[in-house]
Amino acid sequence: LPYVPRVSPVALLGKVTATTFALERPCCVFDQHADALDSVWLAVAFANATATFRNPPSRADVPPYKQLSAAHSYMTLETAAAEFACSAPSPAVLRVGGDTACRDQGRQDPCNGPLPSPGPYRVKFLLMGCHGPKAETRWSHPILLHRALSPSTIDPAPPRRGSDVVVIISILASLGTVLATAVLGALGAKVWGSLCHRDLGTSTFARRSYRTHHIPPALPQPLPPGCGCSPPGLGCFALRPPAPCHRN
Q: Three-state SS string across the chain, please?
């Protein structure tokens, strides 16, 4: 078939990782060749081993994942052909290498284990019926995975910055300090002025209320008894004219 598998063009997180990659789903590719009982397989091989790959004559002869290191190829993702029909709703991508459990279980059935190295790899889809292969696509272009960095190659020390960058950072830090000082000073002056204004008002009120000349003058004392009708000069000093005396 003329179809060429490829990594999904859709923007995805983790489209290609150190052990997996996401393939575009081959919709409408096998409709004219598949029957109801047929299945579609994905053949995965190292890029330099595709010339020696041979399609298995039956499902029992499918190369398993655990022989990848020796045979340089394996087959996985067995799927009913009906799921790739034009009318079938299905996910947009197929994740190759996404089954981390089957690598350690030693199962004999084909699994989709993590890819052991960056590759590069090439893949193709193979339509198989009860009597063997019926149709196949072309091999994909080489697919190179991301290479994981060894912890020993990571430099824990940050890179040194140039002198110009250091000078600029120092100037910016100084300007920030000056600005912060000015703002704090302005706020302090405002608060201090408010406190002084309150103190001034209290002192003024105290001085205005402390008055010593508000004592009223003393009232005239009443005259001693008998001094009202005595003639002046006999010991009684009248502050007002003597009242007339009535003698019997």
A: CCCCCCECCCCCCCCECCCCEEEECCCCCCCCCCCCCCEEEEEEEEHHHHHHCCCCCCHHHCCCHHHHHHHCEEEEEEEEHHHHCCCCCCCCEEEECCCCCHHHHCCCCCCCCCCCCCCCEEEEEEEEECCEEEEECCCCCCECCCCCCCHHHCCCCCCCCCHHHHHHHHHHHHHHHHHHHHHHHHHHHHHHHHHHHHHHHHHHHHHHHCCCCCCCCCCCCCCCCCCCCCCCCCCCCCCCCCCCCCCC
